[in-house]
Design brief:
By secondary structure, the chain is mainly alpha-helical. It has 11 helices and no strands.
Length: about 220
């Protein structure tokens, strides 16, 4: 192991002793703080837009953080796998908060306007697609779902995470309406993290194809 891997391995030893519940607790603090700031007038003249925007950014950051866990294990021997589920569930929760702020506080549940926006505004269409794709992942995030689906099927389903991350990054760029360094960094990081997994995914597809072509 190189120096980075040695450090990562040592950190992993300490991380194993840390329970997952503090991750959930810490993950709920930013939305609570944001709500408090909105109520007390700390978010400026348009607190709803600030809340909506910030929750969306945090959701995207958590999605990207979740994709970083496997490369950190692979290249730096930093084992954070026990926290991957917590990060994923928090990411979905932030997406849900982002959606609720838009539906309830921004659009104020005017359903005709909501459906019109989803159809006519591409960035909202992309964002809603990411949310819908995330629902089955959350629904199967518990251990019983892995046993019922089988590890292979469960793994294939959760590859939707890659699509969700890319859709989230595109949604962010489209709603910004201009190409910013921040939005490009998120998109580039998302593409890079998904790209790291492509050789393995292609290898699996080829192996399955060879198995089907091989006479029984």
């Amino acid at each position: 192991m190189n120096r980075v891997q040695v450090i990562g391995h040592r950190i992993s030893g300490g991380v194993r002793k840390v329970p997952t519940w503090p991750v959930y607790l810490l993950g709920l603090l930013p939305p609570a703080w944001l709500l408090y700031e909105g109520i007390t007038g700390g978010l400026g003249v348009d607190p709803v837009k600030v809340m909506e925007h910030q929750l969306g950014i945090w959701a995207l950051q958590l999605l990207l953080a979740g994709l970083c866990i496997t490369p950190l294990m692979r290249f730096a021997r930093l084992n954070l796998l026990k926290f991957r589920r917590a990060v994923g569930l928090l990411a979905f929760l932030y997406i849900l908060f982002h959606l609720v702020v838009w539906l309830v506080l921004d659009i104020q549940l005017r359903w005709g306007e909501i459906w019109a926006d989803i159809v006519k505004r591409p960035y909202i269409t992309v964002g809603m697609a990411a949310f819908v794709l995330a629902i089955p992942l959350v629904a199967t995030s518990w251990n019983g779902a892995v046993r019922r689906l089988g590890a292979a099927t469960w793994g294939k389903l959760h590859q939707l995470t890659y699509v969700i991350v890319l859709l989230g990054a595109v949604h962010f760029i489209m709603q910004e309406k201009v190409w910013t360094i921040e939005s490009l960094l998120y998109l580039g990081l998302g593409i890079g993290l998904v790209g790291l997994r492509l050789p393995k995914l292609v290898g699996r597809l080829r192996a399955r194809s060879d198995q089907k072509l091989t006479p029984g």
